[in-house]
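Quick start: read one record
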Amino acid sequence: MSSSDSLARGVPPGEPGTLHARTLSGDLTAPPTPGRTVRFGRGEKPDTDLGVGVDDRWVSRQHGELTYRAGSWWLRNTGQQLVRLPRGRMMHGSSAPIPLPTGYTPLFVKGSGHREHLVELYVADHDDRGPVASRRAETVRPQRWALGEDERLLLVVLGRHYLEYEPDPRPLTYGRAVEQLAYLRPESGWTVRRIEYRVEAVRRRLHGTGFKYPLIHDRPEERPSDNSLLHNLLKGLVESTTLVPPDLNLLDDDLDWPETH
């Protein structure tokens, strides 16, 4: 059903619970009618309402469906391949349906090779005119965190591979970081113990500030390694653009450091 079809039925696109869906192949708008089901996949109408991955045989003809009931749109995977949701959540054909929150939800249908096919979903809330209304609004700036001069240098040294946007980056070891810092700031007296202290201080300061990833141990009896928490710290700082590639200018470009993770 197109947006014009929705309006013809007397249902404004922004009515609470209205579903907007879009893929590379098309888009639709569906009113919040109890029992209404929207199907997406590789197939054609009338079996599929919204095409996705239409040239990819790894995508099922009916790969997923959204049904409106109990005041929500419930998503179910009806295909053979996984569906990936935000925060890495996966849905299999045997997974229980989940309700979509209001607002924007992207999902990805696993295809052939490295292909993933995007399905964009938007559920209107109260006083919401839909995703189009945001086009004229001011851009929301990413949340960035303040870092001291020494902290920034230390984190750039530890997170060089993150700032180079390498796949699956890992922090530099504290021992290697001491070597680089000794060259860059020989008067600062960096040691492994001092690095551990400064990294922990940053983690504790940013914990509870809305940082995207865990920065402290939740359960002492099930403690992840400090390296995992450092990975979370560096990943979050780079994704928030608190640390950016120009920060690599703090390092000496003439240095030929071994690529050690």
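Residues 192-206 form the longest helix (15 residues).
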